[in-house]
From TrEMBL:
Belongs to the class-I pyridoxal-phosphate-dependent aminotransferase family. This is Aminotransferase. The keyword Transferase applies. Residues 31-382 form the Aminotransferase class I/classII large domain. It comes from Pusillibacter faecalis.
Protein backbone atom coordinates (compact mmCIF):
# COMPACT_ATOMS: atom_id res chain seq x y z
CA UNK A 1 0.00 0.00 0.00
CA UNK A 2 1.29 3.45 -0.87
CA UNK A 3 0.82 5.90 1.95
CA UNK A 4 0.41 9.57 1.09
CA UNK A 5 0.53 12.08 3.89
CA UNK A 6 0.25 15.84 4.17
CA UNK A 7 3.65 15.55 5.93
CA UNK A 8 5.41 14.04 2.88
CA UNK A 9 7.44 17.21 2.28
CA UNK A 10 8.51 17.43 5.92
CA UNK A 11 11.93 16.04 6.90
CA UNK A 12 12.83 14.42 10.21
CA UNK A 13 15.30 16.47 12.27
CA UNK A 14 18.88 16.20 11.01
CA UNK A 15 20.14 17.04 14.48
CA UNK A 16 18.25 14.11 15.96
CA UNK A 17 19.69 11.93 13.17
CA UNK A 18 23.22 12.96 14.21
CA UNK A 19 22.23 12.08 17.80
CA UNK A 20 21.21 8.60 16.65
CA UNK A 21 24.53 8.17 14.86
CA UNK A 22 26.31 9.21 18.05
CA UNK A 23 24.37 6.61 20.04
CA UNK A 24 25.33 3.96 17.51
CA UNK A 25 29.01 4.91 17.74
CA UNK A 26 28.83 4.88 21.53
CA UNK A 27 27.27 1.42 21.43
CA UNK A 28 30.25 0.34 19.35
CA UNK A 29 32.49 1.54 22.19
CA UNK A 30 33.56 4.93 20.74
CA UNK A 31 34.09 7.81 23.14
CA UNK A 32 32.12 10.71 21.67
CA UNK A 33 31.98 14.33 22.87
CA UNK A 34 28.42 15.42 22.17
CA UNK A 35 28.30 19.06 21.12
CA UNK A 36 25.51 18.63 18.60
CA UNK A 37 22.49 19.21 20.78
CA UNK A 38 21.22 22.41 22.40
CA UNK A 39 20.45 21.02 25.80
CA UNK A 40 21.74 22.45 29.09
CA UNK A 41 23.97 19.97 30.91
CA UNK A 42 22.66 21.34 34.23
CA UNK A 43 19.88 19.62 36.15
CA UNK A 44 16.79 21.74 36.81
CA UNK A 45 17.34 23.84 39.98
CA UNK A 46 16.22 22.08 43.16
CA UNK A 47 13.51 24.58 44.18
CA UNK A 48 11.71 23.99 40.86
CA UNK A 49 11.88 20.21 41.27
CA UNK A 50 10.58 20.60 44.85
CA UNK A 51 7.64 22.65 43.54
CA UNK A 52 6.68 19.84 41.16
CA UNK A 53 6.83 17.28 43.96
CA UNK A 54 4.68 19.50 46.18
CA UNK A 55 2.15 19.94 43.38
CA UNK A 56 1.75 16.19 43.09
CA UNK A 57 1.53 15.78 46.87
CA UNK A 58 -1.25 18.38 46.88
CA UNK A 59 -3.29 16.50 44.29
CA UNK A 60 -2.40 18.66 41.27
CA UNK A 61 -2.94 15.68 39.00
CA UNK A 62 -5.93 16.78 36.93
CA UNK A 63 -6.39 18.56 33.61
CA UNK A 64 -5.39 22.19 33.68
CA UNK A 65 -7.49 24.83 31.89
CA UNK A 66 -6.84 24.79 28.12
CA UNK A 67 -5.03 28.11 28.17
CA UNK A 68 -2.94 27.09 31.19
CA UNK A 69 -3.26 27.64 34.95
CA UNK A 70 -4.58 31.13 35.62
CA UNK A 71 -1.88 31.76 38.23
CA UNK A 72 0.87 30.79 35.75
CA UNK A 73 -0.60 33.07 33.07
CA UNK A 74 -0.61 35.89 35.63
CA UNK A 75 3.07 35.25 36.44
CA UNK A 76 3.91 35.16 32.72
CA UNK A 77 2.02 38.40 32.17
CA UNK A 78 4.05 40.07 34.96
CA UNK A 79 7.28 38.68 33.51
CA UNK A 80 6.46 39.94 30.00
CA UNK A 81 5.81 43.43 31.32
CA UNK A 82 8.86 43.48 33.60
CA UNK A 83 11.45 41.94 31.24
CA UNK A 84 10.09 42.64 27.79
CA UNK A 85 7.86 45.71 28.00
CA UNK A 86 4.96 43.68 26.60
CA UNK A 87 1.47 44.02 28.04
CA UNK A 88 -0.50 40.80 27.74
CA UNK A 89 -3.87 40.13 29.34
CA UNK A 90 -3.51 36.79 31.17
CA UNK A 91 -7.16 35.93 30.42
CA UNK A 92 -7.03 36.28 26.65
CA UNK A 93 -3.52 37.01 25.39
CA UNK A 94 -1.38 34.22 26.84
CA UNK A 95 -1.37 30.52 26.05
CA UNK A 96 0.71 28.02 28.00
CA UNK A 97 2.24 25.45 25.64
CA UNK A 98 4.18 22.21 25.86
CA UNK A 99 7.54 23.80 25.17
CA UNK A 100 8.29 26.47 22.60
CA UNK A 101 8.12 23.64 20.09
CA UNK A 102 4.37 23.50 20.55
CA UNK A 103 4.11 27.29 20.39
CA UNK A 104 5.83 27.26 17.00
CA UNK A 105 3.52 24.51 15.79
CA UNK A 106 0.45 26.48 16.89
CA UNK A 107 1.56 29.54 14.93
CA UNK A 108 2.01 27.58 11.72
CA UNK A 109 -1.12 25.45 12.10
CA UNK A 110 -3.33 28.21 13.49
CA UNK A 111 -2.30 31.22 11.42
CA UNK A 112 -0.57 30.15 8.21
CA UNK A 113 -2.67 29.04 5.24
CA UNK A 114 -1.60 26.90 2.27
CA UNK A 115 0.10 29.12 -0.30
CA UNK A 116 1.06 31.81 2.21
CA UNK A 117 4.68 32.92 2.17
CA UNK A 118 6.77 32.74 5.32
CA UNK A 119 10.06 34.61 5.49
CA UNK A 120 12.77 32.77 7.39
CA UNK A 121 15.96 34.61 8.30
CA UNK A 122 18.61 31.96 7.73
CA UNK A 123 20.73 30.39 9.13
CA UNK A 124 17.75 29.43 11.28
CA UNK A 125 16.55 26.87 13.79
CA UNK A 126 15.54 23.85 11.74
CA UNK A 127 11.88 23.71 12.80
CA UNK A 128 10.79 26.87 11.01
CA UNK A 129 11.34 25.53 7.49
CA UNK A 130 9.78 22.16 8.29
CA UNK A 131 6.75 23.75 9.95
CA UNK A 132 6.25 26.00 6.92
CA UNK A 133 6.24 22.84 4.80
CA UNK A 134 3.82 21.15 7.22
CA UNK A 135 1.48 24.14 6.77
CA UNK A 136 1.87 23.90 2.95
CA UNK A 137 3.22 27.42 2.94
CA UNK A 138 6.09 28.66 0.80
CA UNK A 139 9.22 29.22 2.85
CA UNK A 140 11.14 32.26 1.60
CA UNK A 141 14.70 32.28 2.98
CA UNK A 142 16.59 35.53 3.45
CA UNK A 143 20.23 34.70 4.04
CA UNK A 144 22.08 36.63 6.72
CA UNK A 145 25.80 36.90 6.10
CA UNK A 146 28.72 36.36 8.39
CA UNK A 147 30.35 39.66 7.35
CA UNK A 148 27.18 41.41 8.50
CA UNK A 149 27.43 39.83 11.98
CA UNK A 150 24.71 37.36 10.93
CA UNK A 151 22.13 40.12 10.59
CA UNK A 152 20.00 40.16 7.44
CA UNK A 153 20.44 42.83 4.78
CA UNK A 154 17.35 45.01 5.08
CA UNK A 155 17.15 45.60 1.32
CA UNK A 156 17.21 41.86 0.68
CA UNK A 157 14.54 41.42 3.31
CA UNK A 158 12.39 44.10 1.73
CA UNK A 159 12.82 42.48 -1.69
CA UNK A 160 11.62 39.13 -0.29
CA UNK A 161 8.25 40.56 0.80
CA UNK A 162 5.30 40.02 -1.57
CA UNK A 163 1.54 40.46 -1.16
CA UNK A 164 1.49 36.78 -0.12
CA UNK A 165 3.87 37.29 2.81
CA UNK A 166 1.94 36.23 5.90
CA UNK A 167 4.64 35.80 8.50
CA UNK A 168 8.26 36.61 9.23
CA UNK A 169 10.09 34.37 11.67
CA UNK A 170 12.52 36.13 13.95
CA UNK A 171 14.76 34.42 16.50
CA UNK A 172 16.76 36.62 18.82
CA UNK A 173 19.07 35.60 20.43
CA UNK A 174 19.39 33.35 17.41
CA UNK A 175 20.15 29.68 17.00
CA UNK A 176 22.62 28.70 15.44
CA UNK A 177 24.69 31.90 15.08
CA UNK A 178 24.15 33.51 18.49
CA UNK A 179 23.15 36.80 16.82
CA UNK A 180 21.27 39.28 19.02
CA UNK A 181 19.21 41.75 16.99
CA UNK A 182 19.85 45.37 17.98
CA UNK A 183 16.87 47.63 18.60
CA UNK A 184 17.48 49.67 15.40
CA UNK A 185 17.30 46.57 13.22
CA UNK A 186 14.13 45.44 14.96
CA UNK A 187 12.67 48.90 14.41
CA UNK A 188 13.33 48.60 10.68
CA UNK A 189 11.75 45.14 10.58
CA UNK A 190 8.80 46.44 12.57
CA UNK A 191 8.30 49.32 10.13
CA UNK A 192 8.37 46.89 7.21
CA UNK A 193 5.88 44.55 8.91
CA UNK A 194 3.44 47.43 9.42
CA UNK A 195 3.92 48.88 5.95
CA UNK A 196 3.53 45.50 4.23
CA UNK A 197 1.02 44.11 6.72
CA UNK A 198 2.50 40.80 7.83
CA UNK A 199 2.78 39.01 11.16
CA UNK A 200 5.99 38.41 13.10
CA UNK A 201 6.76 35.28 15.08
CA UNK A 202 9.40 36.24 17.63
CA UNK A 203 11.10 33.19 19.16
CA UNK A 204 12.83 34.44 22.29
CA UNK A 205 13.68 31.16 24.02
CA UNK A 206 17.36 32.20 24.48
CA UNK A 207 16.43 35.61 25.89
CA UNK A 208 18.28 35.09 29.17
CA UNK A 209 21.48 33.75 27.64
CA UNK A 210 23.32 36.85 26.46
CA UNK A 211 26.89 38.00 26.88
CA UNK A 212 29.23 40.94 26.67
CA UNK A 213 26.65 43.64 27.31
CA UNK A 214 24.26 42.68 24.49
CA UNK A 215 20.65 43.67 25.19
CA UNK A 216 17.59 41.63 24.37
CA UNK A 217 14.75 43.60 22.78
CA UNK A 218 11.31 42.09 22.16
CA UNK A 219 9.85 43.28 18.86
CA UNK A 220 6.32 43.15 20.34
CA UNK A 221 7.31 46.02 22.65
CA UNK A 222 7.93 48.37 19.72
CA UNK A 223 5.21 50.80 18.63
CA UNK A 224 2.41 49.19 16.66
CA UNK A 225 3.86 45.67 16.91
CA UNK A 226 1.87 44.06 19.70
CA UNK A 227 -1.15 43.39 17.50
CA UNK A 228 0.93 41.63 14.82
CA UNK A 229 3.54 39.75 16.89
CA UNK A 230 3.39 36.30 18.41
CA UNK A 231 6.05 36.18 21.13
CA UNK A 232 7.23 32.70 22.00
CA UNK A 233 9.28 31.85 25.07
CA UNK A 234 9.73 29.03 27.54
CA UNK A 235 11.63 27.43 30.37
CA UNK A 236 13.84 24.86 28.58
CA UNK A 237 17.00 26.85 28.06
CA UNK A 238 17.04 29.51 30.80
CA UNK A 239 15.94 27.21 33.64
CA UNK A 240 17.46 23.95 32.31
CA UNK A 241 13.98 22.46 31.97
CA UNK A 242 14.11 20.81 28.54
CA UNK A 243 12.39 17.63 29.68
CA UNK A 244 9.50 19.42 31.36
CA UNK A 245 8.12 20.70 28.05
CA UNK A 246 7.04 24.11 29.31
CA UNK A 247 6.59 27.18 27.17
CA UNK A 248 4.13 29.94 26.36
CA UNK A 249 3.11 32.39 23.72
CA UNK A 250 1.70 35.88 23.91
CA UNK A 251 -0.30 37.58 21.18
CA UNK A 252 -3.38 39.63 20.48
CA UNK A 253 -6.56 37.78 21.58
CA UNK A 254 -7.71 37.47 17.95
CA UNK A 255 -4.48 35.68 17.04
CA UNK A 256 -4.63 33.46 20.12
CA UNK A 257 -8.07 32.09 19.26
CA UNK A 258 -7.16 29.96 16.20
CA UNK A 259 -4.06 28.76 18.01
CA UNK A 260 -6.15 27.82 21.04
CA UNK A 261 -8.27 25.63 18.76
CA UNK A 262 -5.21 23.69 17.59
CA UNK A 263 -3.90 23.46 21.16
CA UNK A 264 -7.26 22.26 22.47
CA UNK A 265 -7.48 19.38 20.04
CA UNK A 266 -3.78 18.46 19.90
CA UNK A 267 -2.75 18.82 23.54
CA UNK A 268 -5.86 19.86 25.57
CA UNK A 269 -3.70 21.39 28.29
CA UNK A 270 0.00 21.31 29.09
CA UNK A 271 1.22 19.13 31.94
CA UNK A 272 -0.17 20.58 35.17
CA UNK A 273 2.75 19.46 37.33
CA UNK A 274 5.21 21.24 35.06
CA UNK A 275 2.94 24.31 35.08
CA UNK A 276 3.01 24.43 38.89
CA UNK A 277 6.81 24.18 38.83
CA UNK A 278 6.97 26.94 36.21
CA UNK A 279 5.10 29.29 38.58
CA UNK A 280 7.84 28.73 41.16
CA UNK A 281 10.54 29.20 38.51
CA UNK A 282 9.15 32.65 37.70
CA UNK A 283 8.42 33.64 41.30
CA UNK A 284 11.74 32.56 42.79
CA UNK A 285 13.82 34.99 40.78
CA UNK A 286 16.68 34.41 38.43
CA UNK A 287 19.77 33.83 40.52
CA UNK A 288 19.88 30.22 39.29
CA UNK A 289 19.57 31.41 35.68
CA UNK A 290 22.36 33.91 36.22
CA UNK A 291 24.61 31.22 37.72
CA UNK A 292 24.17 29.02 34.64
CA UNK A 293 24.56 31.98 32.29
CA UNK A 294 27.89 32.84 33.92
CA UNK A 295 29.12 29.32 33.36
CA UNK A 296 28.01 29.46 29.69
CA UNK A 297 29.87 32.77 29.38
CA UNK A 298 33.05 31.11 30.72
CA UNK A 299 32.74 28.26 28.21
CA UNK A 300 31.99 30.66 25.36
CA UNK A 301 35.16 32.61 26.15
CA UNK A 302 37.16 29.38 26.33
CA UNK A 303 36.03 28.44 22.81
CA UNK A 304 36.59 31.93 21.41
CA UNK A 305 40.14 31.96 22.84
CA UNK A 306 40.82 28.45 21.56
CA UNK A 307 39.55 29.21 18.03
CA UNK A 308 41.54 32.44 17.94
CA UNK A 309 44.68 30.28 18.09
CA UNK A 310 43.65 27.98 15.24
CA UNK A 311 44.41 29.72 11.91
CA UNK A 312 42.06 27.48 9.88
CA UNK A 313 39.06 28.60 11.94
CA UNK A 314 37.41 32.00 12.29
CA UNK A 315 34.38 32.98 14.21
CA UNK A 316 31.93 35.82 14.81
CA UNK A 317 31.64 36.05 18.60
CA UNK A 318 28.10 34.96 19.50
CA UNK A 319 26.29 37.59 21.59
CA UNK A 320 23.72 35.10 22.85
CA UNK A 321 22.49 31.47 23.09
CA UNK A 322 24.86 28.62 23.94
CA UNK A 323 26.01 27.98 20.40
CA UNK A 324 29.06 29.00 18.46
CA UNK A 325 29.10 28.95 14.67
CA UNK A 326 32.70 28.91 13.43
CA UNK A 327 33.76 29.18 9.81
CA UNK A 328 35.91 26.17 9.00
CA UNK A 329 36.57 26.92 5.32
CA UNK A 330 40.30 27.45 6.12
CA UNK A 331 40.57 23.69 6.55
CA UNK A 332 39.74 23.19 2.87
CA UNK A 333 36.70 21.13 3.83
CA UNK A 334 33.01 21.95 3.53
CA UNK A 335 30.95 22.18 6.73
CA UNK A 336 29.38 18.82 5.97
CA UNK A 337 32.74 17.14 5.34
CA UNK A 338 34.25 18.76 8.40
CA UNK A 339 31.39 17.73 10.72
CA UNK A 340 31.60 14.18 9.39
CA UNK A 341 35.37 13.96 9.81
CA UNK A 342 35.22 15.59 13.26
CA UNK A 343 32.75 12.92 14.36
CA UNK A 344 34.22 9.88 12.66
CA UNK A 345 37.93 10.61 13.16
CA UNK A 346 38.02 12.71 16.31
CA UNK A 347 34.83 11.60 18.05
CA UNK A 348 33.28 15.06 18.38
CA UNK A 349 29.65 15.51 17.30
CA UNK A 350 28.63 18.88 15.83
CA UNK A 351 26.07 20.01 13.25
CA UNK A 352 26.99 21.17 9.72
CA UNK A 353 25.79 24.66 8.80
CA UNK A 354 23.71 23.29 5.93
CA UNK A 355 21.22 22.00 8.53
CA UNK A 356 20.32 25.65 9.19
CA UNK A 357 20.78 27.17 5.75
CA UNK A 358 21.36 25.14 2.59
CA UNK A 359 23.82 27.80 1.36
CA UNK A 360 25.87 27.76 4.56
CA UNK A 361 28.41 25.05 3.86
CA UNK A 362 31.45 26.68 5.45
CA UNK A 363 30.29 26.49 9.05
CA UNK A 364 29.51 24.08 11.84
CA UNK A 365 27.48 24.60 14.99
CA UNK A 366 28.81 23.58 18.38
CA UNK A 367 26.81 23.76 21.57
CA UNK A 368 28.63 24.86 24.70
CA UNK A 369 25.82 23.67 26.94
CA UNK A 370 28.33 20.92 27.72
CA UNK A 371 30.86 20.65 30.54
CA UNK A 372 34.12 22.60 30.33
CA UNK A 373 35.90 19.25 30.39
CA UNK A 374 34.10 18.08 27.22
CA UNK A 375 34.90 21.39 25.52
CA UNK A 376 38.57 21.04 26.42
CA UNK A 377 38.60 17.50 25.03
CA UNK A 378 36.85 18.69 21.86
CA UNK A 379 39.41 21.44 21.30
CA UNK A 380 42.39 19.18 21.85
CA UNK A 381 40.89 16.58 19.48
CA UNK A 382 40.29 19.34 16.93
CA UNK A 383 43.92 20.45 17.11
CA UNK A 384 45.04 16.84 16.76
CA UNK A 385 42.79 16.32 13.74
CA UNK A 386 44.05 19.46 11.99
CA UNK A 387 47.71 18.53 12.58
CA UNK A 388 47.35 15.21 10.72
C1 LIG B 1 15.30 28.64 18.54
C2 LIG B 1 14.59 27.57 19.26
N1 LIG B 1 13.27 27.68 19.42
C3 LIG B 1 12.57 26.73 20.07
C4 LIG B 1 13.18 25.60 20.58
C5 LIG B 1 12.34 24.58 21.27
O1 LIG B 1 12.40 24.74 22.66
P1 LIG B 1 11.47 23.97 23.67
O2 LIG B 1 12.34 23.00 24.41
O3 LIG B 1 10.92 25.02 24.57
O4 LIG B 1 10.41 23.29 22.89
C6 LIG B 1 14.56 25.45 20.43
C7 LIG B 1 15.24 24.24 20.92
O5 LIG B 1 16.37 23.94 20.61
C8 LIG B 1 15.28 26.46 19.75
O6 LIG B 1 16.61 26.38 19.57
Amino acid sequence: MKIHSPMDAVELSRIRAIGEKVQQLQKEGRDIVRLQIGEPDFTTPGHIIAAAKAAMDHGQTHYAPNRGLASLREEISRKLLRDNGITADPATEILVTSGCAEGLYLVFMGLVEPGDEVIILEPAYISYLQLARAAHARAVPVHAKEENGWLPDLDELRAAVTPKTKLLVLNTPGNPTGVVYPREVLQQIAALAQEQDFLVLSDEVYEKLIYGGAQHVSIASLDGMKERTITINGFSKAFAMTGWRMGYLAADARLILPMLKVHQYAVASSNIIAQSAAITALQAGESCVEEMRREYARRRQFLLDAFAQIPEISCVAPAGTFYIYPNISGTGLSGTEFADKFLMEAGVATVPGTAFDSFCNSHIRLSYASSMESLQTAVSRLKGMLKK
